[in-house]
Amino acid sequence: MAHEHKLEIFRGLVKFKSNIQKIWGVLAFLCFITIIEVVLGIYKPEGLIKTSFLGMKLLNWIFIILTLVKAYYIAWDFMHLRDENKSLRRAIVWTPIFLVLYLTFITLVEADYIYNVFKEGFVTWDF
After folding, report:
1. What digits encode the pLDDT tens for the residues 59-81?
2. How far from the centroid of its chain's Cα atoms is residue 35's Cα?
């Protein structure tokens, strides 16, 4: 039995006539986010590099957030999570998001500790 997929993205704001058009629309959205990441990575705006938030540069936070948006949207549309039960969607999407946030927190705490050890300890910067 064939299952009809929803032909809309952004919670129904953009609607398509066929699955092929929807695939191209999602691809365009993902390319747009990737282009933003590449432009920010090449130009590195001074304000985003100097501004720090929770121990990390604001530019790095933007990269992490945009990467999570892309990963979520790939799973949502290309893996057809939109058509699954709410509990399965939450189990598949929320678990990696919490894992990424937790691992980011651990990395920031450990990096800050190592930085302080090198800065104030007996070992000097060797690189």
Report:
1. 998 998 999 889 888 887 777 78
2. 14
